[in-house]
Structure formats: structure tokens, C-alpha cells
Amino acid sequence: MLVLGIDTSTKVGGLGIFDSERGLIGESNLALERTHSERLMPLLAELLQSVDLQVQDLDGFAVTLGPGSFTGTRIGVTTAKTLAQMTDKPIKGVSTIEVTAYNLALVPELIYPIFDARNRRVYTGGFRGGREGISRITEDLGCSIDELMDNLQNLVEPVYFLGDAIEKYSQILWDKLGSRVIIPPAALWMPRGGVVAELGAKKLIEDEADDLFGLTPNYLKPSQAEINWAQKHGK
């Protein structure tokens, strides 16, 4: 199965093409100043051309549903759904947190990606790596960095942290968890398009395709516009 993976839920725009028989055959991960709406389709056209494929050659699509950037996630989901509808191929949504944790799939320790959700809050989720890949410990959640530290403080084992919130909260991590904190190289912090494609392919092969019209982003919290509206109207 040949699957295109799309991730626009963070500042890094990721695309990948995974073949269930040959593995990863093409990938693009770029953090550019341009918005996802400006760069996504040109990058997709370039990637397809580089591997000598057309959209019609693909057998399915995978896309990150968040949590992450509201606008970015919406762009990726809309694009993937449009391509799936246009080609009449299946689609699968995957968690941005899970995709990021997958970067350390073979590490037999706790893995907690953390992404900045502003106002001392993070998007996160717990996983454990191993020979069989990653297994989920918690659902994706939005919480304060302090709540997350309180939940992890009594653990005695190491915890690997990934994600764009590391730079902002690294000192808090060290202060609360000390030597149990392990921060891998920055190249492993962010979701990759190739991982989106690989996870999507595995789930599609297992017949876990999503309903095209029911697939929506997982924001985990209201947008700032919704928060402002609620505050203004006393909701």
C-alpha cells in the first residue's frame, strides 16, 4: 500500500510517502517562514515528482489531526480530505502526539511529547517504546505544565521529552524531575511526514480507515477567538 502522509499541525510542514513493501520512499520536512497554505501544495508537487508518482498512484492518505496549531491542522486535514475524495481512496487521521513519540519507538522508556499551548499549558500524552513500537499510556490531553510535572514527579524511571515546548519549559523539567529527564537531539523533537505516512499505512492495512466526512481536527481546547467570545458574552 502506497500512502501519503501530511502534517501541518506544527511549525514544521511534513510530507512523506510510505510503501508497505519498500518502506519510506520520499519525505519532506521544512520549517519555513511561509504559511502552510502557501507551501503545502508546491512541496507536495515537488515530492511526487521526485519519486516519479502522481496523486492517482497513491492508495491512501494519512494526516495529523492535532493537537497543535488550529489553522495549520485545519489546512492539512482539508487538503488530505480533498485528495481522498478526488481520488476515491481511504483516509486515516493520526495523533500529532503519537507521531512525535514514534521518533523514539524503540526506546523502552516513558516518552512524553510536549507542545506549547500557551499560557503555561501544553499538549501532551504518554507512551512507552519497545521492540514492538510504541504503546499508549494516556490519551492526548491539554494541561498546565505544572499539572504534568505533578503527575510525573513520583515516577522513578527516566522520561524522554520531545516537542516544541522543550525550549520554553526545559528548566521546569529539570527542576521538577531532575536526572530522570532525558532530552534527545532536537532533530527528533518534531513530527515527521514519513512517520505520518507509515502509521497511516499500518492502520489502513488493518482496515481502520476513517469516515471521510466525519474526520475532523482534534483541537483539545477552544480557539482564542472562541475564548474571547465567551469572555465577552459571559459564557
Total helix count? 7
- Gyration radius from CA atoms, angstroms: 18 Å
CA-to-CA gap between the ends? 48 Å
Strand count, sense and barrel status of the largest sheet are:
7 strands, mixed
Strand percent estimate: 15-25%
Tell me the count of domains: 2
Structural class: alpha/beta
Mean pLDDT: 92
pLDDT under 50 segments (min length 5)? 223-231
Q: What's the level 1 CATH class of the largest domain?
A: Alpha Beta
Give me the CATH superfamily of the largest domain: ATPase, nucleotide binding domain
Helical residues, percent? 25-40%
Order of helices and strands: EEEHEHEHEEEEEHEHEHH
Topology, number of strands: 12
The CATH topology of the largest domain is given as: Nucleotidyltransferase, domain 5
What is the general shape?
A: globular
Name of the CATH architecture of the largest domain: 2-Layer Sandwich
